[in-house]
Specification:
CATH architecture of the largest domain: 3-Layer(aba) Sandwich
Helix content: 40-55%
Strand content: 15-25%
Radius of gyration: 24 Å
Mean pLDDT: 83
CATH topology of the largest domain: Rossmann fold
Number of strands: 13
Order of helices and strands: EHEEHEHEHEHEHHHEEHEHEHEHEHHHHH
Shape: elongated
Distance between the termini: 65 Å
CATH superfamily of the largest domain: P-loop containing nucleotide triphosphate hydrolases
CATH class of the largest domain: Alpha Beta
Number of helices: 17
């Protein structure tokens, strides 16, 4: 910093690009272009990628690693999706598409200025947990559990921040369950992945009156399917630094995209039902997890939804069938649940005292019970690993495997 100004270093291959960047930097009050060859300061570097992008990425990474620069903006002509993803992994804060748009460049510079000069405080980085809710079969209530668990947690003690993300790229229904008309969805993220930072993601997310932030599925996905898992990985990494908990509605099918979310998940709620077809599919899914090598057994909690006492298949028989313990049961409250879905309202709002709402609240409490053992200590949702030992998973009154 010189004379109170932020020093901006520009390395561009194209003279026109360099001149335009210099002009735009000088147009922002409090910024100054660093003279060519000067090495003082460790501010912002705006770097133009060449045809040999891999070599450039290694150079940029070395500068960041040695703290020679604080931040890096990258720019290039017609970058491929692979180049954009590599830019994110390298640590670039912004990617300026060419031809350069004056307003976009200025806004990026102002965001950098705010980070450096705004409050003088570092941005708060959370260590939020990613909880993937998936179904052993279609129609078992995966979205119902994901949506209402997210709302329940957000409205609980200490009001943790919650993001609800739909990775079911073809059949996402979260907006219907919450009567929302979000302006943005996954497609917007995919098309502008180079802009992905906390400010951009917060603008993309839609806030529901319950307090949760929602990122719905586009219900179609025309972008490069090869890049979809990498895009989702970047979004989840960022969201987990912004929110206490990120809940994923993962649908019920396995794909490269869903495999990535399972790989990244800290916890997996596997929703099943007490029917032979569903239990059979659940067993196949568990076998697939073991073949993949993730998620680990210790991360998986099996939840039997729409449970009815004295059903033809007992809990013991269900557990024998899938060769795993059932962590929790949620009661069959079909009329209340369908009313909530048809009205587009969460269960805690429409039926706060119903058995299913109470069951979801107690499920959320059970998932966080270890935190409750420390008296007078503030809760932090899901910040400790779950224990899936047989002793821990045995039924205890009012807690795990609660039967209503």
């Amino acid at each position: 910093m010189q004379n109170g100004n932020l020093m901006i270093r520009i390395e561009a291959k194209n003279p026109e690009v360099e001149r335009k960047l210099q002009r735009l930097v000088r147009s922002v009050e409090g910024m100054q272009v660093q003279p060519s060859g000067a090495t003082n300061g460790n501010g912002l570097l705006i770097f133009e990628l060449s045809a040999d992008a891999q070599c450039d990425f290694e150079y940029v990474e070395s500068l960041l690693h040695m703290n020679t620069v604080d931040e890096v903006f990258l720019t290039a002509q017609d970058p491929s999706p692979a180049v954009l993803m590599q830019a994110i992994r390298t640590g670039a804060k912004e990617f300026l598409s060419q031809p350069l748009v004056d307003e976009e460049v200025k806004q990026a510079l102002l965001r950098y200025q705010k980070r450096r000069n705004g409050s003088g405080q570092k941005e708060l980085v959370k260590s939020g947990q990613i909880v993937n809710v998936i179904g052993g079969k279609g129609g078992v209530g995966t979205t119902t559990v994901a949506v209402n668990l997210a709302v329940t947690i957000a409205q609980g003690e200490d009001a943790p921040s919650v993001a609800l993300i739909d990775t079911n790229l073809l059949f996402g229904e979260i907006p219907i369950f919450l009567e929302m008309k979000p302006k943005y969805h996954w497609g917007e993220i995919a098309r502008q992945i180079h802009r992905l930072d906390s400010d951009f993601l917060m603008n993309i997310l839609s806030k529901h009156p319950s307090g949760i932030h929602v990122l719905p599925s586009p219900a179609y996905f025309h972008e490069d399917q090869e890049e979809a898992p990498r895009i989702i990985e970047s979004v989840l990494q960022l969201a987990s630094r912004m929110f206490d908990i990120v809940i994923i509605d993962g649908g019920h099918s396995l794909s490269r995209t869903s495999s990535k979310t399972l790989e990244m998940a800290d916890k997996v709620l596997l929703i099943t039902a007490m029917s032979l077809p569903c239990l059979s599919n659940t067993k196949k899914l568990l076998d697939s997890f073991r073949t993949l090598g993730y998620p680990g057994r210790e991360k998986i909690k099996i939840v039997a939804n729409r449970y009815v006492k004295n059903s033809e298949i007992s809990l013991k028989e269900a557990e024998d069938s899938i060769q795993e313990s059932i962590f929790w049961t949620l009661p069959n409250n079909y009329k209340v649940t369908m009313t909530a879905i048809n009205q587009g309202k969460p269960l805690p709002e429409i039926a706060p005292n119903s058995p299913i709402t109470k069951g979801l609240k107690e499920l959320a409490d059970a998932l966080n019970r270890k935190e409750e053992t420390a008296p007078k200590k503030k809760k932090h949702w899901f910040l400790k690993p779950w224990n899936t030992s047989k002793a821990e998973m045995a039924p205890t009154p009012g807690h795990e495997r609660r039967v209503t």
